[in-house]
Write a structure and sequence with these properties.
- The protein has 511 residues and is mainly α.
- 79% of the residues lie in helices and 0% in strands.
- The radius of gyration is 22 Å and the shape is globular.
- One of its GO terms (molecular function) is symporter activity.
Length: 511
Amino acid sequence: MNSLRVMAWIFLVAFLGFLLYVGVWAGRKNKSGGTGAEVEYFLGGKSTPLIVLAMSYAASAVSAGSFIGDPGMMSTIGWPYFWLVVGVVPGLVLPGYIVIRKMRVQAEKYGSLTLTEYLGDRYRCPFLKYYLTIVITICFLFMLVSQFKGAAALLETYTGIPFKVGLIIMLAVVVFYVNTGGLRSVAWTDFFQGCFMTVMCVMMVVVAVYKVGGMHSLEATLADKWPEALYISEAGPTQADGTVVGWMGIISLITWGCTIMFCAPHITSRYLALPAVHKKDVAKFSMISMVTGFLFNLMFICGLCGRVIFPDAEADYLTVTMSSQLLPPILACVCMIGFFSAIVSTATSILLVIGQSIGRDLYGGLSKKATPEKQVRVTRYATVICALIVLLFNMVNPPAFLQIFIYLGLSGIGSAVFMPLYGGVLTKKGTKLAAILSSIAGPAMYVIWTVPLGLSWVSGMGVGPLAALVVYCVVTWIENAVKGLDQVMIDWADGFKDVAENDTYMARKHA
């Protein structure tokens, strides 16, 4: 066993031990918290420090994609793919800064603890909550498949652990500390993992650029060997997976980054968990998220550098190959923990959201015997079952391209949630029917665009939200023009206004 593998084992055991410790600590903290069992488990008692939630927000958003999948895509497409960063970095901050405060005030009024519960309450529509819960569960399972595969492949490369054994290790660790500590353990581990990820990003980018002789030398090499990589956009369907980043793809990537990223439930849960949402707090949260997100997305550059240094390396594992081949063992192990942290931070957040959706939104909404304690228990059962489904899928047929699976999942969820969320926060005139139809139109258009029409999944990333926007606005305008404004719904949308008509809905909700 070489020195890298020995050191990798030491780092891995220490890291996994730390995750388990945080899970146990968070579980004890939840039991001694001053709020209800469901608030402690789902939102960390709304007492997690702002800086921890901000780092958790950024770490959960980027996942293995920014460190493994996206650099791999960059190495096969070139600079046109960097337009995604142009959309994602501001997309992590600007929409949230616009929406956070009002959404949180409304959620407090309704007693909502999850994104889907908030949307169902905002439009007084249980169907919307149940429908979105099903969409989120299905789409997030796709994303979890990619996260588990990435973790297992990473462990196999660094430690020699067989792929299937790595899958089992990933399942055991993730399920344990999600079930034990809920959001509190997820957020705190994300914070420390984010520190590793930041160090890894800076180190990898500096080393990669140095190895190719600087950015000028990189551009010169690409111009000589792969001139298409320097184009602003792709000219045609040059990729084996059908990826085309033409002008429509560029617009779609920016649109997707500025709209869909914010709508992901595993990210918005941090807004609901913030201790306070004063303007100063929101600004601080947004600034930390933006800086961290920018640093994480610098890893895209490693994709181009890796293409020059290791032209024959597999795209999905290019950055892993670079870290193990270019760095001394101890620094390579730091990168291993950084990669693993990126995967685990997103996987735990996604798994928690799936569990919440089933335990809180489905079981809690449909069963009259669903006490807070039972909701938490069902959530834990759901996380175990979903993790086992993902494990079996990876055992039988792991996906070929990690990042495509991630974007398929996010695009499906985001196009369904986009307009109900934005419309529910930014206008009081949005109607229940508009929210329902837009949440169906977004994913439907994305599927039609990419499957029957066979068009690029990249351009489809922007078409789904556009369809949802058009449907929401048109249906809202028609309903309000024909029926007139619903004053009860307008008052209900005001987070600071309580009216007698709303008491009936709240009584039914908590019956």
